[in-house]
């Protein structure tokens, strides 16, 4: 039985895959804030907070096929009527997208990119809460595909489903 050799040789250069191209140019913290408006008194209260999470994404085109995606995460912890802390993180990335259909581009910018940014934002929130000497806060994973699908459904109902998302609200 003869063995097949499928490795490319110098005479047969490997072909680059055809299709859409995507690359991360940079991931960075755009803005960050942590407030404890009721300290030090808040530390004397029993820790049973009501935690509210707000997530927002914003996309802007920097130049042809180069986009900034900003994931804004706001966490508010309340003890009754008192704010224990307010944590705001804007995690951003610059992404290069090759030529691709508008629908694919919208999904990449509205779901895939925020999904890449979320672990960085989650870590920043966790670190800020820890530095505020509050008990650990671990944010659960977010289903950006579902958020994006809801956004696109809303856009379709309004008659603009093919637009690249400029803002996604959860």
From TrEMBL:
Residues 7-18 have a biased composition (Low complexity). One of its GO terms (cellular component) is cytoplasm. It is found in: Cytoplasm. GO terms for biological process: protein folding; protein tetramerization; protein transport. The keyword Acetylation does not apply. Residues 1-21 are annotated as: Disordered. GO terms for molecular function: unfolded protein binding. Pfam families: SecB. Keywords: Chaperone, Cytoplasm, Protein transport, Translocation, Transport. Belongs to the SecB family. Homotetramer, a dimer of dimers. One homotetramer interacts with 1 SecA dimer. NCBIfam families: PRK05751.1-4, secB. One of the proteins required for the normal export of preproteins out of the cell cytoplasm. It is a molecular chaperone that binds to a subset of precursor proteins, maintaining them in a translocation-competent state. It also specifically binds to its receptor SecA. This is Protein-export protein SecB. The gene is secB.
């Amino acid at each position: 039985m003869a063995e097949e050799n499928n490795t490319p040789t110098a005479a047969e250069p490997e072909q680059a895959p055809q299709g859409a191209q995507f690359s991360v140019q940079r991931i960075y913290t755009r803005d960050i804030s942590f407030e404890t408006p009721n300290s030090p008194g808040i530390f004397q209260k029993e820790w049973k907070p009501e935690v509210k999470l707000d997530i927002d994404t914003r996309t802007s085109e920097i130049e042809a096929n180069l986009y900034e995606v900003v994931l804004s995460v706001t966490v508010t912890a309340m003890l009754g009527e008192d704010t224990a802390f307010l944590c705001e993180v804007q995690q951003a990335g610059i992404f290069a997208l090759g030529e691709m259909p508008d629908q694919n581009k919208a999904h990449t910018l509205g779901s895939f990119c925020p999904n890449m940014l979320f672990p960085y934002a989650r870590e920043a929130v966790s670190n800020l809460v820890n530095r505020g000497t509050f008990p650990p806060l671990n944010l659960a994973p977010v289903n950006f595909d579902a958020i994006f699908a809801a956004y696109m459904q809303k856009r379709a109902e309004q008659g603009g489903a093919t637009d690249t998302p400029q803002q996604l609200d959860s």
